[in-house]
Design brief:
Length: 357
């Protein structure tokens, strides 16, 4: 299978996995053949793209680091929590936190079980599903980085709770500002910046949320060089969990369609994170990030600097920019590979650009 952006979908393509929208509503089943009507529906709902099966990617398996079942359950619980927070249903929030604690434990367990995997998956989400998917993705990415940094299971669970709650303060910000399609003016930006402190003050009222998780809500917009907010902390003054979520929050936001910006390619977003090394972001966290998040996810079609076309079939932790590529000729895969990380003859070859076939 391989990921295809919605604007590149064509009639006759075969859906490689179930397509699920907000509230876990099943839209299309795996194996469905795309028609013009279905493509228009996918685009209308705001999906960035879908996975398809075709000759180019017939034997490629894109494995996710957590199961779809757990993903759907987590997003449903996140959605319920945020709705109850917005409606000030305090009597229900404590029970939601208990349920989320169990979900988080399952997420941590699955990630520990798959700890040798790289994050190769491009997330599929509809526009209306952004908030819940973002919370989940930041949680998963943060736990993945936490495992690389050697955190114990208890700490991973606390990190996950903080990551899941990191944007809870946005519930209290004017929706017109949060969903504004254009750039924010100065007053609007200052209002949005308050979400960290507002969210922190809110989660501090729930004693079932560990202090380390509460501090993630407060510090996930602090920057390593002191240029962040709300208090301009720098370096080790920022709790480790906050430094981790600072990276994963920015990355997931950059690869997502939002009201005011289109999604970047994973490679461009990874390049931005790498560019913030020791300035915006903790270099130790960035090192962990580049070990686990693939700039060119498996199934990505690329043009190499030698002019050949191929599809990424394997990534390597310690050489994230140099995957193994199977060549494509005439839109058909051939049994020839270029391993950019290990082939001596390929040392001067790089990935020139990503394409959609």
């Amino acid at each position: 299978m391989r990921f295809i952006p919605s604007y590149c979908l064509r009639e006759g393509q075969i859906l490689a996995c179930d397509l699920v929208a907000d509230k876990n509503k099943m839209l299309l089943r795996k194996g469905a053949t795309l028609t013009d009507t279905l493509i228009k529906r996918i685009c209308y709902l705001g999906f960035q793209g879908i996975y398809i099966d075709d000759d180019i990617s017939a034997d490629i398996v894109v494995a996710d680091i957590i199961s779809n079942e757990l993903k759907y359950k987590a997003k449903a619980e996140i959605r319920s929590l945020l709705i109850n927070v917005e409606n000030n249903m305090k009597n229900r929030i404590a029970s939601h936190v208990e349920t989320l604690t169990t979900v988080i434990s399952n997420i941590v367990d699955e990630i520990l079980h798959n700890r040798n995997m790289m994050v190769n998956v491009v997330d599929i989400r509809a526009y209306d599903d952004y908030t819940y998917s973002h919370c989940l993705n930041v949680t998963v990415l943060s736990v993945v980085l936490g495992t690389v940094l050697g955190l114990e299971k208890k700490a991973l669970n606390e990190l996950a709770m903080g990551a899941l709650m990191h944007d809870i303060g946005k519930v209290f910000i004017d929706k017109k500002v949060i969903n504004k399609a254009g750039p924010l003016n100065e007053d609007e930006y200052e209002e949005v910046k308050m979400h960290s402190l507002i969210g922190y003050n809110y989660v501090c009222t729930n004693h079932k949320i560990p202090q380390s998780a509460q501090l993630v809500v407060l510090t996930h917009h602090e920057r390593f060089d002191g240029s962040g907010y709300p208090t301009g902390l720098q370096g080790s003054e920022i709790p480790l969990f906050g430094r981790i979520v600072a990276v994963t929050d920015v990355y997931d936001a950059m690869v997502s369609d939002r009201p005011y910006s289109h999604a970047l390619l994973p490679s461009d977003a990874v390049e931005f994170i790498m560019g913030g090394y020791n300035t915006l972001f903790d270099p130790t966290v960035v090192d962990a990030f580049t070990r686990k998040v693939a700039p060119y996810p498996v199934g990505t079609c690329v043009i190499l600097s030698n002019g050949l076309t191929g599809i990424v079939v394997q990534n390597y932790e310690y050489s994230c920019l140099r995957p193994k590529v199977r060549l494509i000729r005439g839109n058909k895969p051939v049994n020839e590979f270029i391993d950019l990380a290990h082939d001596y003859d390929a040392l001067n070859i790089t990935i020139k650009e990503i394409i959609n076939l």
